[in-house]
């Protein structure tokens, strides 16, 4: 059985980590399958939003500790099989929603937090557990925690491995919203449909500029904003938005991103 399954719901591609017996821990075949699924969805013009979630009671428990051979050359494992996942989610033009249904531990925490929108069930927890096994944060965890929380709190979470409840994560600004477990899937689908119905080019350009804004200086970001606005202003979606406003109707944004 594949460690990843996919399911198309309209313009939404659901990608589910599918090793519930291992709490969706990531071994190399699962990471390979996940990257392939993300890349397929990113290239498919019929897909306008992606939802990433986990099967069973866990979102993702991080690296599979039973695949210990994968950490003999840990640098290569992270560089070649974890980093591409983070980069694919972060740099693809389409929005990616994490629907965190349970444990998000280590690299699983990283996969969730690098998504564009993060929703979590009330029972979900987020744990930066690397230090407990003598490792350091990877899979984007360092970047996300330091940028959003600052060094002191990020360092505390990394060195203690303290778990955050879904509500704590929301209050800290790490995630967008908390739902009941029974409502999580419907909430994720609803938000995904809203994004899928939006102006794809503008959404793609916004994602690119926001990624840049996280580390670049103000002049660079201002230049990127101007360039992005030029592209958005020349797009069919902008023309449709103006027409809809003038005609007092809802816009019909149907084109794939052309960014």
What can you tell me about this protein's structure?
It is built from 10 helices and 10 strands. By secondary structure, the chain is an alpha/beta fold. The strands form 2 sheets. It has a 6-stranded mixed beta sheet, with helices on both faces. Strands 4-6-8-9 form a 4-stranded mixed beta sheet. The mean pLDDT is 95.
Write the layout of secondary structure elements.
Layout: E1 4-9, E2 12-17, H1 28-43, E3 49-54, E4 58-60, H2 74-91, E5 96-100, E6 103-105, H3 107-113, E7 117-121, E8 125-127, H4 141-149, H5 151-160, E9 163-165, H6 166-171, E10 177-179, H7 184-196, H8 200-213, H9 218-233, H10 236-247
Parallel strand pairs: 2-3, 3-5, 4-6, 5-7, 6-8, 7-10
Antiparallel strand pairs: 1-2, 8-9
Helix pairs in contact: 1-2, 4-5, 8-9
Shape: globular
Largest sheet: 6 strands, mixed
**Residues in helices, as a percent range:** 40-55%
Strand content: 15-25%
The low-confidence parts are none
Structural class: alpha/beta
Rg, please?
Answer: 19 Å
How confident overall, as mean pLDDT?
Answer: 95
In short:
This protein is α/β, with parallel strands linked by helices.
Characteristics:
six-stranded mixed sheet; 10 helices; 259 residues; four-stranded mixed sheet; 47% helix; alpha/beta
């Amino acid at each position: 059985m594949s460690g990843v399954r996919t399911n198309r719901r309209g313009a939404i591609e659901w990608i589910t980590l599918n090793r519930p017996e291992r709490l969706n821990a990531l071994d190399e075949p699962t990471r390979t399958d996940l990257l392939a699924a993300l890349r397929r969805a990113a290239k498919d013009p019929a897909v306008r939003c992606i939802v990433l979630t986990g099967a069973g009671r866990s979102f993702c428990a991080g690296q599979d500790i039973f695949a210990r051979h994968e950490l003999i050359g840990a640098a290569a494992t992270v560089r070649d099989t974890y980093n591409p996942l983070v980069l694919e989610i972060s740099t693809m033009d389409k929005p990616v929603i994490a629907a965190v249904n349970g444990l998000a531990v280590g690299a699983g925490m990283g996969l969730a937090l690098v998504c564009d929108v993060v929703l979590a069930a009330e029972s979900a927890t987020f744990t930066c557990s690397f230090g407990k096994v003598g490792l350091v944060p990877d899979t984007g965890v360092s970047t996300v925690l330091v940028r959003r929380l600052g060094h002191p709190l990020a360092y505390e979470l990394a060195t203690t491995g303290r778990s955050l409840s879904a509500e704590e994560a929301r209050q800290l600004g790490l995630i967008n919203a908390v739902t009941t477990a029974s409502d999580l899937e419907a909430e994720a689908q609803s938000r995904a449909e809203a994004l899928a119905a939006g102006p794809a080019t503008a959404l793609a350009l916004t994602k690119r500029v926001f990624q840049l804004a996280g580390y670049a200086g103000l002049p660079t970001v201002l230049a990127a904003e101007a360039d992005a606005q030029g592209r958005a202003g020349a797009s069919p979606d902008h023309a449709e938005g103006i027409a809809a406003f003038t005609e007092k109707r809802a816009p019909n944004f149907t084109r794939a991103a052309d960014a």
